[in-house]
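User:
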Amino acid sequence: MARVIAIANQKGGVGKTTTTINIGIGLSERGRSVILIDFDPQGSLTQGLGVDPDSLSATTYDALIDDETPLDWVFLRVRSKVVLAPAGIDLAGAEFELAATADWQQTLRRRLVTLKTEADFILIDCPTSLGVLTVNALVAANEVVVPAECSFLAFRGLSGLLATIKGVQARFNPRLKITTILPVKVPRTVHAREALEELRRICGPLVSDIIVPQRVKVADALISGKSILEFDPRSDAAEAFRRITEVIDHGEKGIYEGARLRGRLRRL
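Assistant: Predicted structure:
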């Protein structure tokens, strides 16, 4: 069975798509077969891999809503060991359509169970909300990677995500674990350093020892339809993503420790 990892954080602009692309490409560089699922109606993962969402005849939306459309029917091969389930703005409609169905939380899980694949990893790029699509991703996943900005304001959003994960664990998916909280887009500022220290104090070993520095070329790579590993393979950002990919490939780093973390984050 593939390891299914949701890349999630309800706050926008924290680097979820960048993290998904670079971990996915990094795993493929290590010889792993990877499926990337764009679960965000903005289609940033799709565009970030060089695919125009407006040119697609079928997307993740069709596989979710239509029981007659298997998920692998919408797959696009974007690299030798990487396939993409693309998304477009139509996926926004799934929030309402799925909510009107029985057991809507299990929809993506059912699609993955029937998926015929020998992939080693399935990575799900979640939307910037804690709604129907994100819950579906968490129910379907084994693990969660949480990209996190190093600012005290961004920590407030983590509390809501942790509460959602706890609810999914209790009601639908007891095997779900947080693999790591990954500091991304970290600038060289006093505020970022202090925020990172506080995040590590609160969340302990769940916070990655590896941080991804803030670099303009990471955004440039996304615009060009490439990962930073391909765009600027010798950069420190590329090296950081390679190192975190190695950690993920070797196994889980940590587990979600329950309400204690959520309570500490709320007190910030």
